[in-house]
Design brief:
heterodimer; A: 300 residues; mainly alpha; MetI-like fold; two-stranded antiparallel ribbon; 13 helices; 2 strands; B: 2 domains; 6-stranded mixed sheet; 5-stranded antiparallel sheet; 8 helices; 37% strand
Amino acid sequence: MSPILSSHDGEPHPDQPRKISCVAWLLAPPLLWMGAFFFLPLLLVLVISFASRGTYGGVEWSFSLANYATVADPLYLKIFLHSLVLALVATVLCLVLGFPLAYYIARLPVRWQGVWLLLVMIPFWTNFLVRTYAWIFMLRTEGLLNSLLIGSGLIDKPLEVLFSDTAVLIGLVYGYLPFMVLPLYAAIERLPRSVVEAAWDLYAPAWAVFWRVILPLTKPGVVAGCILVFIPSLGAFITPDLLGGARSMMVGNLIQHEYLVVRDWPFGSAVSFVLMGLVLTGLMAYLRTEETMNKPGEER
Amino acid sequence: MTDNHVELRDVVKRHGATLAVDGLSLEVGRGEFFSILGPSGAGKTTTLRMLAGFERPDQGDILIEGRSMRQVPPNHRPVNLVFQHYALFPHLTVAGNIAFGLEMRRVPTAEIQDRVGTILDMVKLRPKQDRLPAQLSGGEQQRVALARALVNRPAVLLLDEPLGALDQQLRLDMQVELKAIQEQVGITFICVTHHQEEALTMSDRVAVMNHGRLLQVGSPQEIYETPASLFVANFIGISNSLRGRIDRVDEANCLVRAVDLAGQPTLLARLPAGAGEGSPVTLLLRPERLCLSSEVRRSSYDNELPARISKAIYNGSGMQYQVALSDDLVWAARLSNSSSNQKRFLPGEAVFIRWNADEGVVLSE
């Protein structure tokens, strides 16, 4: 027993009050940290979102909903919609690319699984910004991709990939694929081989084995992976900024633009909160449907 | 056998450098309850997995209903497997698990309900059809696994250690139930087990394997009473053995000289095929076939050896004795508790072990 817990040996209930204070001491630092550096700034942003922009870019303290009304402007709604579509497509691409990879890794002998997982995580060893710059060199008109394609005779005019939605998608999928693979791997690794074999033995063709058994049983991993890819993709800022240019603006760029270029902090704050609201509502709606869907099984 | 339902022809399977199955040939008849018995690593599970189609033989062929299974994937084979740990689908109810195979074969919905209902009654799980596997006991899960396979009416049902995860009492009950179900449905059962009593109780025929090789095939009685090798004899129950040499041959009988015992006494036994005077042999005797007596009088038994009781164990239905014939040769003897005034022997007591020539098996080496 630890010295903290065993110091009151003779008393009738020595542990109870001690345990509580012990837990409090352990929780205090993270709670203080989160309060000071997450909750307070968030509150500040919320307050600012109801203020208005000063003439020279400062914040004029007044209460109005005008910033939120501006978000509803078709110009900005289009950016939201565009971000939503890009984030969705990136998530689906990550899922489609990540599932076979995760399945392959999860079925390797244990000692090889570690090697492959390390390979999946190696990109994190380099700064994200640097890696995104590298993609510019890959995708630009005289870049690696085009010289390879032209060199092999597949095309004769360079593809204009850089500064387009395609480039942003490539960047997003590249950046967030590991966040899809890891939870998928964890879920698949726990799926007993014999259950998959049982489906096969019971006349299921490959697609049915996947849809009826593998997918339902790895759903927690699929959901976790999708959330981990979708949310950062929706708020992505570096990738669309560097690879999308002016043609492919996402919400993250809009917020950055409002804060740093236009210096309209109140409007930038309002956009941030709408984005947060969207994500939260989406998650809540998902959890709600899950609950109602799971009920029949849990009743008994 | 005229009606070969399942046939293995010289099947070889390697796992890396080890030979998991080494030239196995077997024939299983229609409607037979056939068990493959052996210690772990004998190659029996690999054999079952090749029958199910999860593994392919490196050499040889497997025929089911006369058709080669070489190119047939598991989902097209007329067999179903009851997995060792059941491998039930955790997200489907009992009824959903059982209906899975029928749904995959696109059986009409009404017929699915019908057949699932019938099988649920057979395994006595109708009241629990809407439960998830996690909400069932081990025995119930075992019955779901059985029902999930049987409902498809496969040509052959494969069972991988079907009772391995059950506790002793349930295991005994299920042995009887499984055999009854097999007789009721008339499907060929091929069962893999390392549990000799299970194999003897349930099977029409038993194949004993070790190190990927087939050692003996026969009815439970043949396997138990006339084991073809020392390994089979020892694996199926306890055997007492004694090394010897054939001294004299007299028509169907022979005199075996016990070379390991003081004074090298001779014992009357049945002459094994292919043996003659001078052949080295091993004499095998089951513990329950021996008679113990402390009386010195001449008996009507063919053979008699002096010994000393070294341990006496009471186990309810009988007495188990360890009897020392010499310093390093100890036999087991089992006397059934068939009468209340039966003589009990105490450790240290001098006794005579007696038996008739018919009770022993002689293996020529």
